[in-house]
Amino acid sequence: MQVESSPTIKTNMADDIETFYKSDLPTLAFPVFEDIRRQGKLCDVTLKVGDRKYRAHRIVLAASIPYFHAMFTHDMVESKQDEISMQGIDPNSLEALVNFSYNGRVEIDQTNVQSLLVAASFLHLQAVKDACCEFLKKRLHPQNCLGVRCFADQYMCSGLVEASNKFLQKNFKDVMKSEEFMNLSKAEVQEILGRDELNVGSEEQVFEAMLSWIKKDGANREEFLPDLMGKVRLPLLTPQFLSDRVASEDLVKSSHKCRDLLDEARDYHLMPERRPLLQTFKARPRCCSDVPGIIYAVGGLTSSGDSLSTVEFYDPLLNRWRVAEAMSTLRSRVGVTVLNGHLYAIGGYDGQDRLSTVEVFDQGTKRWNKVAPMNCKRSALGAVALNRKLYVLGGYDGVTSLNSVEVYDPENNIWSMLSHMLKHRSASGITVLDGDIYACGGHDGLSIFDSVECYKPSTNTWQYVAPMTSKRCRLGVATLNGKLFAAGGYDGSVFLRTVEYYDPIKNEWKLVKPMNVKRSRVALVATYGRLYAIGGYDGATNLSTVEVYDPEKDLWEFVRPMCAHEGGVGVGVVPVEHVNEG
């Protein structure tokens, strides 16, 4: 057939070219591929699993599934075969993933999620594998988290392993009662009992979990008791529990090594001077940063500079602030911390004097009650809870910045003096990390510091660690995921929004994403696995705004601002279980 030539149309511009682009062509084409496959037309390969066969098109499989791309585009035997036998893959999952290669959809449910994840892993379909992991993450519970963790580890799903570990730590009190826990190997139990971030009300629960696992199969597990008991932090148990429960246990009585561990714990209580000889981890409190908590904002300043007694609380799940019972005293630059579910307001400034007074909020009666005052007046102090006691550090007494340190024993309602810090520090950031207390930055009235010092309760001594990358006073400090974070503050000339973290293993500081706004006098706390930066001063105005940091995304986002404060608050996180008890 002869085609008649068309006349040439002449234009004035030599480069007069237009490109037509149909952006929805792939979206329109793939449903057609799927329809052609359903009709059994143009298919050029058959996948066989057992006695099940699936017809498909090489080009579609190669374009959508990495495993088949490698098979069909390289000189492999299968690239020429009309029928390919697939080994070690579930036929239903293969069918679902072949369908996925045509329509981009796959249904995931409780019955197929594991086989689908295995098949997706085999075919290198990372998107489906990730979707299966997300499905399992949302359905973690105390009865399955250990099994999910094992399964995820087997198929190298690191995100799911991490999520399972966090769930295990946060819900250890329920997980320890599960059948999965009772069926773990000795090595697995030992690893879990050694974790710093187990969420337990007391070390008694760890001891009971260990003993329950041993007694589940006593004939075969009794020999493991000394090794597992070595992972229980016996010095953190009360002398009464050591005597009445541990020492009276027949399995402990019959083991020489266990009796030695018990004696070591008793010596810790009876002879404080020997505490430095004890392995550090055994006296280090467990601290779970994922524990759900309610954030309390206490005291602070008005825009005119007046001190407040106002208290409000924030629920991160509801993203809502509510006003709570006010303190009995006006307090700005107040030290706030939480011990045994009780919220303490310590020292501060009432508009006329620096204060030594201390009050505690009772969740049951919803009232503030005064307890013994400190030995020194302090505002702009640091306060933390550790080893069932309160510690206060530095501050300003109205005349000078302080380097003195006090500890409060709530059982005896007594404050005692401890070793002084290496520097006089007012407006520093204080937190606990791995059982030690860290004091970061601050000032002495003349200089602002980048230095950081660490207090070891076992030796009652202070020592310097690596300095921050920036000088900071009036900063916020908190601990999250085994790291110490320092946010905002003032360096003497600039109000800061930068944030950095300290790695105790490497003894170094690194910057992360800065906050959205500058915040001096910022309060920083950790709960639900995130950091909350609350209030502050940006150099012009007091701030009621709040932003939250997600360490996985390295991102700060605003949440609901405070409703009753303008900045400069003290903050503490009360675990939800204590709030609910009240």
Kindly summarize this structure in a few lines.
The protein folds into three domains: 25-139, Potassium Channel Kv1.1, Chain A; 184-283, Serine Threonine Protein Phosphatase 5, Tetratricopeptide repeat, CATH 1.25.40; 293-581, Kelch-type beta propeller (Neuraminidase).
Report the major sheet. Answer: 4 strands, antiparallel
Strand content: 15-25%
Please give the count of helices: 18
Strand runs, count? 27
Supply the number of structural domains. Answer: 3
Radius of gyration: 31 Å
N-to-C CA distance: 93 Å
> How would you write the strand order of the largest sheet?
6-5-4-27
Can you tell me the CATH topology of the largest domain? Neuraminidase
Helix content: 25-40%
CATH class of the largest domain: Mainly Beta
**Class by alpha and beta content:** alpha+beta
Shape: globular
Report the average pLDDT across residues: 92
Uncertain runs are: none
Can you identify the CATH superfamily of the largest domain?
Kelch-type beta propeller
CATH architecture of the largest domain: 6 Propeller
Layout of SSEs?
Elements: H1 25-38, E1 45-49, E2 52-56, H2 58-64, H3 66-73, E3 83-85, H4 91-103, H5 113-122, H6 126-137, H7 145-154, H8 158-170, H9 172-175, H10 179-182, H11 186-193, H12 204-216, H13 218-221, H14 225-229, H15 239-246, H16 250-253, H17 256-270, E4 293-298, E5 311-315, E6 320-324, E7 335-339, E8 342-346, E9 358-362, E10 367-371, E11 382-386, E12 389-393, E13 405-409, E14 414-418, E15 429-433, E16 436-440, E17 452-456, E18 461-465, E19 476-480, E20 483-487, E21 499-503, E22 508-512, E23 523-527, E24 530-537, E25 542-550, E26 555-559, E27 570-575, H18 576-581
Parallel strand pairs: 1-3
Antiparallel strand pairs: 1-2, 4-5, 4-27, 5-6, 7-8, 8-9, 9-10, 11-12, 12-13, 13-14, 15-16, 16-17, 17-18, 19-20, 20-21, 21-22, 23-24, 24-25, 25-26
